[in-house]
Amino acid sequence: MFLTPRRLRLWTAALLAGLSLSALAAEGEVRKINAAQAKITIKSGPIANLDMPPMTMVFKATPPSLLKGLAEGDKVSFEAAQVDGQYVVTSIRKLP
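That's the Copper-binding protein sequence above. Prediction below.
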């Protein structure tokens, strides 16, 4: 994969968000997954670091491999960031 400046910014944001800690994590439910476009729709509680109230929203998965093993209806804990005007999920895990 060729690392363009935009991809470098996305990966940097993902790395920094990965180093941020569960205090920034939000919880929600997976509503839809579009693996071909690396997008996930999540109905979530508040997302504190983005100053967002509870809502259903589409996020880009960065990296796309984050979507592996997830299914519609899964309860998840996730971290998100805004990179270049786009909302991205930078980490996600299924909740029991």
